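Sequence in, structure out.
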Amino acid sequence: MKSQKKHVLGRTLMIITDLIAPIGELLRRQAAERPQALAFRDKDRSVTYGELAERTARIASYLQANGVGPGDRVAIHLPNSVDWVEACLGIVRAGAVAVPMSFDATTEEITYRIKDAQCVAAFGRPQRLDLLREASPAIHVIAFENGEGEAGAEGSAGQPPRDPLDMERPAFIIYTSGTTGRAKGVVLSLQGMLWVTAACWAPIAGLSADDYVLNSLPLYHSYALNLAVVSIVATGASEYLMESFSTSRLAEVLANEPITLLPGVPTVFHYMLERAKEEGRRTLSNVRICLSAGAVLPGPLNQEFESWFGVKLLDGYGITETSTMVTLNSPRGSRIMGSCGLPLPGLATRVIDLYGRDVEPGSEGELIVRGPNVMLGYHNNPEATASALRDGWYHTGDLARLDRFGFLSITGRLKEIIIRGGQNIAPAEVEEAIFAHESVLDCAVVGIPHKFLGEVPVAFIIPRDGHQLDEAVILAHCQARLSSYKIPHVVHVVAEIPRTASGKIQRFKLKELLREA
């Protein structure tokens, strides 16, 4: 265990100075060393590193010439694409702050984010510009599609990009998933984002210029922005961008492109495994490693995936407020299935009780984190910032256990704990037990009010195709694996479980369904 930590730390120290640099410098370096190498590709077009450096400089110059100043916020309302990457990097090179938004967001969601972030400009598809104007009539809307438009090939080349050297300034505002309510704008620096590249993706996952990454994750989330945009440029890797996740499309790209690294959320690996079983296919061609984050990866799924494909699936834990990653399992040395790995080198983690005292190894408490990757704060929300950031520590709100070797396991959310007759129940623990049933494809557990017990757990399950499940089967399965007070009070078989794009369960929506019923 000690040798594993020493190896990762040593490799991190060797590469950290090369990877943490301003975006403009990273792009100029890649363009000088490998101008014809593929940087990003989507279904419509591709861009080399030489082209990417030139095009993002042109976009930055366009923004500057049109009044976008240092620190101004610029929204990105585009689907996953090469366009998205170019717009984002161009914004950062102009010294502005990129504010990504879901391409499927409603008018209400777009309006809230643009107004909350006080955006002065927005990139959008020509057919959706009216949606952006409706959200904010005063905003400067920029049409951008297939690299064409006023900021693309036609953009201004009259002034060089600002390419700010201050890497600790705000560079991104990423809105949280909204699993519990109104989304908050998390302000992140380029320094924090690239620190994760240098401490996690490069030394642990081995991301390098030799890799060809397949990304189906939404770029407006920090996980994808960090790994699938910033880290690609920093390491000189290549990437194929899928517009959105589709099991059939994923299989098609894997069959036709020499993909070496595949990131995803647990749901992605669920569906990949199901399809492969249906087809009797046991290979992932050139893929050397798969990475999971965004939600808890059930241990049984992790084991079954690796056994079926013969490819390591490394689970990690990260949140928007820490520029993504806090922990990641290493492909070398020991792993504990069901845990999300060891804290990144140089990152401090603690698990504390309600009084702020460190708990014993193996005991449950709230995870708090301190390090270079912690957010600058919540945009325009000093109260929430003060509540989350205390004495340099970010209080995650996640319940966790650290074992005596330092491996982290996430057990739930403080606000999601179900208190049944005075006893605490973590929904994640009940979900882990239910997932162990071979006929369960997906599940979620929430707490509902109970007249005598305060709260009781209710389970929602999706059966695998061709499998029949009912409440009695699931309750009998849980009785063999859980204490009696943790067994669901009711089980509902459903067709869909609401999740965010990063794979987190939207429990409040399930509670709304129960109230409506």
